[in-house]
Amino acid sequence: MPRTGQLSERSVQIPPAGLIGDLTIPADAVGVIIFAHGSGSSRLSSRNRFVASIFQEGKMATLLLDLLSAEEEQIDLQTRHLRFDIGLLANRLVQATRWLANESSIAGLPAGYFGASTGAAAALVAAAQLPSSTRAVVSRGGRPDLAGEALHKVNAPTLLIVGGHDYSVIELNREALNELHCEKRLEIVPGATHLFEEPGTLDQVASLANTWFHHHLPERFQARSGT
After folding, report:
1. Which DSSP string corresponds to 5-69?
2. Which of 46, 67, 73, 60 is closest to 120 using CA atoms?
3. Dist. CA 164–CA 30, nearest whole Å
């Protein structure tokens, strides 16, 4: 297994769809964050990899994966419909979460989801389907409204992060926030647009998400394990 400093890194393939992912595990990891990228993105996204590096520094393992197979990606480039198939994407996240639960290197670690764009909706649907496995959810510039009725079933603490200049998405997030019955919060990053490309804005996203996960994953894990 390749190592970078105190990190163990390797590529993985997750059945049954054969999803390709990059799993990075820091020494003494306290949790694992599964990334669900948005429409038109991939596990190689520089934005997600930057955020993942912040999580890794905080002793969180990360799994960045493509929720569509290579063949499906090619179809989606033409039709653009699979990226909005929230049920399909959520099912792939569920498969990845169950696979991680049986992965010896991180088995037993509490898991959270970090979703962007349509991936945020998929993360919330997956969280609703796996209430005992999902400890927290963070959405970056997401479309949580696309999770529909599943919002009512989410019990994992959920943080919604939106750019201050992403006006239409702010309203969609406020509407989704009202539908959530779990612990929840909406954070608006001033001066940021949808992709958080403005200087310093993605750093704020990473900091907010890192704090949220560190507060909720170990805490809920300890409560569940009785330690």
Report:
1. TTEEEEEEEETTTTEEEEEEEETT--EEEEEE--TT--TT-HHHHHHHHHHHHTTEEEEEE-SS-
2. 67
3. 32
| Predicted confidence (pLDDT) per residue in 155-167, tens digit | 999 999 999 999 9
Q: How many domains does the chain have?
A: 1
Compute the distance between CA of residue 25 and CA of residue 59 in angstroms, rounded to an integer. Answer: 8
pLDDT bin (cut points 50, 70, 90) of residue 81 is low
Q: What is the per-residue DSSP string for 27-45?
A: TT--EEEEEE--TT--TT-
> What CATH number is given to the structural domain containing 183?
3.40.50.1820
Q: For residue 56, what are the contacts with CB-CB under 8 A and spacing of at least 6?
A: 7, 24, 26, 62
> Of all residues in the chain, what percent are helix, strand and coil, respectively (each to 5)?
45, 25, 30
pTM of the full predicted structure?
0.90
Range of the domain at 42: 3-225
